[in-house]
């Protein structure tokens, strides 16, 4: 029996989940891998705090991160404390100390993934982060391993459970955006300050991580145009339903030649698209590739055990590498010879709504109405433009429709 | 650069796909793994036949399987010829000759999986068969690797593209079973003799393979009660639609204590279940586990490139093991201390249809009609029993409804 010494940074929801799963799976892991994990030290802010962990083993808590990352006996560091700067420093140090690292920190990987990947490569250690995207779905492993001989051309996903819960509730319960958000908060699906979720920041992080693995390209988050869900009205939701569409918070990346076209924001999805039926806090990612066509992966996007299970998968992957003396085969390397552009620069079809529309068609100029009748399904205040519109045509149409007196919302359509 | 010598048995649809992908991915594989694959020999029935392969390399065909499996320089054998007895013998011989084996042969793995796994284990070689279930979806790898620390409790899937295409077409085009099957045949989705697909034999093989990995249990296919789709009528399809249900060809396995409850046959699926939207030849598997809850995996179930891509994934997995001198870590071992029973032995809810029903309620005895009104939605000839019925109650109800003059079809309901 080989003993692998593990250190942990943080012991919140995910950390406790990891300890629970390690405790529960101890015998099975020993049997199948011949390995026993020794959780040597756990760095937390308050080491003396009483924790309600249902663990049979003694655990050693410390207030100092350095006690974990500088302990020469620790081979693997699990980072689940979830800050940016502090985690970045700690992980850099752990890697240069020769330790493999597993992290669930999406912000960190989205922003510093390529740098950390390079560092891990230079120091011949592993860096895994399956838990950073879509908690319970092994999507990174699938992108990294099973699709290695295939060429990925596009990704479309629902990767933010909070946003998806809010829009799902608005549709199912016919409630307002504010009511649905409150419900999400009371159920623990949204934080008190939900800005990262509803403004698409969290989703953008995840798109960047997915893109690192799928296209070898880390998205420039500063330049990325993203849209949150806070502008989605009940009128939009209901109008979409009338036309057989569902509004969903999406992330999209499509590669065309050497350009990656991206979108983070709400889209209108046709019923037959699998994403239309991904509801509540569920996550789903559709992958389009040359050999396979479209495959889809769905499951819980967050939660203590699903996320912890992804950390455990990483832990076992790293452990196998240690046993094989083959450390240093982390997730794909990234290469950055690819341009970036908004998906909205491509011709798209759109679902448009006129908010505060009174039903008075005179607000739309006759020419535009004639145009609309030719290319769209018109249903009172809802318009479904089923012909591809260039960015310019779309802008022209929306300003003509608004005509100074109404607000036009537009959603790219996913078939 | 390491050269790995590969032999292939068979060169039909899947085999040609493998050669195409190997040819296309050659540079990327060399770059990322430092490996070059040498396809040394391909055993086929007619080695002199002209093949329209768009491959730059010279290929060496042979009429003798022995020339491949007994060639000492060949390290990996890919079996894509798809027979049972001949493939079993050839693979056994290849394994005892110390070669790792990749197969797409579902019949073989369903029936002889545990024996071959044991043999591969004894001879310290790899045995992989990702392509045998759900062509393009890496479901076996997911079951085997990512869920290792998790406990799988249930599997529900649509794993036969032909059956799913036929039932989808019956619903969408309002065509008969016969018309839909003919359409499937003309599109190449069903064979001239489609018995293995429509009678659920192919689906049962796949359930057995999934079950070997998910529960460590190979299903006794001789005792398994399965139902095909040939009895599904337009009346059933339409009636289901009226009640918000879709009839789908399913495989189900649920573990309860030490018993595995299985079903292979058509079921009625509620709209909100992800399987309701899996249409045409697409495959999908829902996995229920302790840590994750339900995750789902969907994609093309067949086709040259998707299936070949799964073979390629296996080839790279085996190659990594060869590079690491760590051959012998094939998919999970199977253990057989688990009982088997039909899912129909558990209380279930049912969708019932009365075929050749004339609308004359008098055919149902008054007592039964009273009973029905209490537990079901009655809609002419369609009944949705939303209360759990034991097997006995279900039998009693169906024979009472039939009353000697009509045919009752019943479908377990999936929520």
Automatic annotation (TrEMBL), chains A, B:
GO molecular function: homoserine dehydrogenase activity
Organism: Pediococcus inopinatus
Enzyme type, top EC level: oxidoreductase
Domain Homoserine dehydrogenase catalytic: 138-316
Catalytic activity: L-homoserine + NADP(+) = L-aspartate 4-semialdehyde + NADPH + H(+)
Top-rank taxon: Bacteria
Descriptive protein name: Homoserine dehydrogenase
Alphabetical UniProt keywords: Amino-acid biosynthesis, Methionine biosynthesis, NADP, Oxidoreductase, Threonine biosynthesis
Entry EC no(s): 1.1.1.3
SUPFAM superfamilies xref list: Glyceraldehyde-3-phosphate dehydrogenase-like, C-terminal domain (SSF55347), NAD(P)-binding Rossmann-fold domains (SSF51735)
Family: Belongs to the homoserine dehydrogenase family.
Domain annotation Aspartate/homoserine dehydrogenase NAD-binding: ranges: 10-130
UniProt pathway annotation: Amino-acid biosynthesis; L-threonine biosynthesis; L-threonine from L-aspartate: step 3/5; Amino-acid biosynthesis; L-methionine biosynthesis via de novo pathway; L-homoserine from L-aspartate: step 3/3
């Amino acid at each position: 029996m080989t003993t692998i010494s593990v250190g942990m940074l943080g012991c919140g929801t995910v950390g406790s989940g990891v300890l629970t799963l390690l405790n529960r799976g101890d015998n099975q892991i020993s049997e199948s891998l011949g390995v026993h994990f020794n959780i040597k030290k756990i760095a937390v802010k308050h080491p003396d705090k009483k924790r309600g962990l249902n663990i049979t083993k003694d655990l050693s808590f410390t207030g100092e991160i350095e006690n974990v990352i500088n302990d020469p006996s620790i081979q693997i560091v699990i980072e689940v404390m979830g800050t940016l700067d502090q985690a970045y420093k700690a992980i850099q140090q752990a890697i240069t100390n020769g330790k493999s690292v597993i992290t669930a920190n999406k912000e960190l990987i989205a922003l510093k993934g390529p740098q950390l990947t390079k560092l891990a490569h230079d120091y011949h250690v592993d860096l895994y982060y399956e838990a950073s995207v879509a908690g319970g779905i092994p999507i990174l492993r699938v992108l990294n391993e099973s699709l290695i001989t295939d060429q990925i051309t596009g990704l479309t996903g629902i990767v933010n459970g909070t946003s998806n819960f809010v829009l799902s509730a608005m549709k199912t319960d016919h409630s307002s955006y504010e009511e649905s958000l409150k419900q999400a908060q009371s159920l623990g699906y949204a934080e008190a300050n939900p800005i990262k979720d509803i403004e698409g920041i969290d989703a953008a992080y995840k798109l960047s991580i997915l893109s690192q693995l799928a296209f070898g390209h880390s998205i420039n988050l500063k330049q990325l145009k993203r849209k949150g869900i806070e502008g989605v009205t009940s009128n939009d939701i209901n109008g979409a339903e009338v036309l057989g569409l569902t509004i969903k918070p999406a992330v999209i990346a499509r590669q065309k030649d050497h350009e990656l076209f991206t979108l983070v924001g709400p889209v209108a999805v046709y019923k037959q698209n699998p994403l239309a039926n991904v509801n509540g806090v569920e996550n789903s990612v559709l992958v389009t590739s040359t050999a396979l066509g479209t495959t889809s992966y769905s499951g819980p996007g967050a939660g203590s055990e699903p996320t912890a299970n992804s950390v455990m998968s990483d832990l076992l992957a790293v452990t196998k590498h240690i046993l094989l003396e083959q450390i240093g085969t982390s997730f794909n390397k990234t290469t950055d010879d690819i341009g970036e552009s908004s998906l909205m620069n491509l011709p798209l079809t759109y679902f448009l709504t006129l908010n505060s529309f009174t039903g008075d068609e005179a607000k739309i100029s006759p020419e535009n109405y004639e145009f609309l009748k030719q290319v769209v399904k018109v249903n009172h205040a809802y318009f479904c433009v089923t012909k591809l519109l260039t960015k310019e045509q779309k802008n022209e149409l929306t300003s003509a429709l608004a005509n100074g007196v109404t607000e036009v919302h537009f959603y790219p359509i996913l078939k």
